[in-house]
Every structure is written in C-alpha cells, then in structure tokens.
Amino acid sequence: MQLAGKRVLVTGASQGIGADTAFRFAAHGAHVHLVARSAELLDLQVKRITEFGGSASAHVADLADAELIRALAAEVETPDVLVNNAGAGRWLFLDETSADELRTMTAVPYLAALLLTREYLGAMRARGSGWIVNVNSPVSRLPIPGCAGYQSARWALRGLTASLRLDLRGTGVGVSEVVPGKVSSEYFVNNPGAEERIPAIARLIPSVTPQRCAKAIVDAVERERAEHLFPWQLKAFEISGRLFPGLTSYLAWKTGTHR
C-alpha cells in the first residue's frame, strides 16, 4: 500500500510504540489520527509530527469504554489503516489479580481492538480497501507462568487476527499482526514487577526499540505482510513451541517465576 495521502488511526499513540508508529506514518505522507487517554501527551506527539512537517490530529479516548469507542468512530472518518496498538495489564497470577483489573486488561487490548475494528469494518469492506494492524505481545506465542490475565487477552487478540484474516480474504481489506520481542519502552516502568517475571530462557531474546517496532508496523502495511515476529530469536522460540511444545513449555516454567 502506498501511504502518501492516506488516513491512519493509531491507538495507544501517546508514547512508546504508538507514538513512534504515528510519527513514521506521518513521515511517509499520511495524515495520522493519534488516540490515547492523555490529552497532554497526545498534544506533544502531534506537535512533534507537525514540526517535522507531517499532518496529525489528537483524539482523547479511553478505549476500555465501549461508548467512547463508538464516539471516536463517529468523530474520525473510516481510516485507510487502523493500527490497534493500545494495551494494558500487569503480569500477575490469576488469583492475585482483582476482577476489575482482569476486566481492564481484557478491555485493552482485546475488546478495544475488537470493537474499534467492528466500527470501521463495514465501510472498509464497502469500499474494498483498508488495512488493519494488530500489535501483539510475545506472550501470545510463548506461554509463561505468572501472567494469566494479560496472556489470555493477548491470545484473544491473536485469535481475532486469525479470524479477521479469513473473514476478509478476497475483500480488499488486509490484516497484519506485528509481534515484537521485549520492547525498551515505558511498559516495564509503568508495570513494576513484570520484567522480573520474564523466564530466564526468554531473556535470550534481545530487546527492541519502539522505533524498530514502528518500522516493522509501517513495513507490514506497505508490503501487505500478514505476520511479522522479530527479532529472529523470538521467531525461533515460536517455531520451537510448535515443533516441541512440551519441551518449550517446560523450559518456560522451569526458568520462569514461581510462588
């Protein structure tokens, strides 16, 4: 897909992967709609883009609220590219996670992507074009102990991606799933304790920057790529999990967090 002149909507765009993705799309000549909860942080990102010479607008919305998702869809015309990047949730054992927190981490990323995509899908199908990118986590490929709620939401997002890919085949609307390894972003600062729960074996996968993630997302749209896992060590673990699921699960458990 050629991006110049296209409209792109990016969720979770106030910082990290989302902010750099919005900037990169704008640098390719697209008008970018940035969505997040913080008006102040969004305004900083819009200023960054416009000072560079790009085109962008900010939209404040809490995507855990279905009513605000509907309001956002009414406010922003159906984009050419929808990037479902917003995510939330701590890495906790199920019985140490409150019911409210479980609902929140299910709402974002999974329900936010599900409902926002639903709002725009009819118009995309009617015009016969569009691209949807779901940004997922490595825990959607590698089960690890100590993050049941968060991991469940990420597996649900993976299921949504696979279902959409089949449903939209031949319609002109494409779907990409981009899965980076551990990202050197604000996530682990905002979710203390999560980093310590990464199994030792998974620490063999190098960290990647938000800028590299942004490049992967934009490349996936430009090249109309269905799936991109990176770095290569993550892809190797994913293949290992399919070929040797028992061994891979054992190693994740053995080197992971325990009570």
From TrEMBL:
Oxidoreductase keyword on record: yes
Superkingdom assignment: Bacteria
The keyword Oxidoreductase appears for this protein: yes
CC annotations in GO: membrane
Keywords: Oxidoreductase
GO MF, one annotated term: oxidoreductase activity
InterPro entries according to UniProt: NAD(P)-bd_dom_sf (IPR036291), SDR_fam (IPR002347)
Similarity field: Belongs to the short-chain dehydrogenases/reductases (SDR) family.
Protein name, per record: Short-chain dehydrogenase
